[in-house]
Amino acid sequence: MKSQLAQQPVTVGEVAPGPFASFVRFVVCGGGIGVLSSGAVALLAGAMPWAVANAVITVASTVLCTELHALFTFGTGKRAGRRQHWQSAGSATAAYAVTSLAMLILHLVQSSPGMLTEQVVYLSASGLAGTARFLVLRLFVFAGGRDGGRDQDRKQVQDPKQVQDRDRAFVRRAAAARRRVVSVPTRLPNRVLTPAALTVGS
Q1: Which residue has the higher pLDDT, 191 or 111?
Q2: Which of 69, 43, 67 has its CA nearest to residue 54?
Q3: Following DSSP, what letter does each residue of 40-100 receive, concatenated?
Q4: Which residues sit opposite 193 in a β-bridge?
Q5: DSSP code of 140?
Q6: Which of 90, 106, 130, 177 registers the highest number of CB atoms within 10 A of its CB?
Q7: Arithmetic mean of pLDDT, 10-35
């Protein structure tokens, strides 16, 4: 007797992207939002002071990036919560501090560095800070969502052999129950029906 449960397809959840795919998505999202933000600041600066426009766009772009990282970059399958937003903002602030510190050290070492030197130092610091921020987001900020998804997938995925063994044990218990003998004899007129005669099924 084949189990109907064993014939059902195994449900597998969506697999979270690997480290390389996540990093590519992180760069694409961050770079794309960065380009859009620079244009938005220039447009918004015509209606308000540049510092205010930059602050508004920075906050909006950070929130948008966090949502994209939760749904697309790290594949958590759900929107970022308040904790993820605060942690992401903190990592972005730390990355900004690293690049600013690198430029400050450069100007302390060289009073008038060339444009090429400034670009090399800034891009190097940005690359290191961005990589560190990616690791923080992947390993700490959005790790819980992926683990939770994997745990749910493991609950949904069952070994077909285990399902078959469980179903066979159920069938055996059902068959044994059908052959169970009623222990209390039933009296009929002029005779007694013995327990052996009350066996149900064969």
Answers
A1: 111
A2: 43
A3: HHHHHTTTS-HHHHHHHHHHHHHHHHHHHIIIIIS--SS---HHHHHHHHHHHHHHHHHHH
A4: 186
A5: I
A6: 130
A7: 80
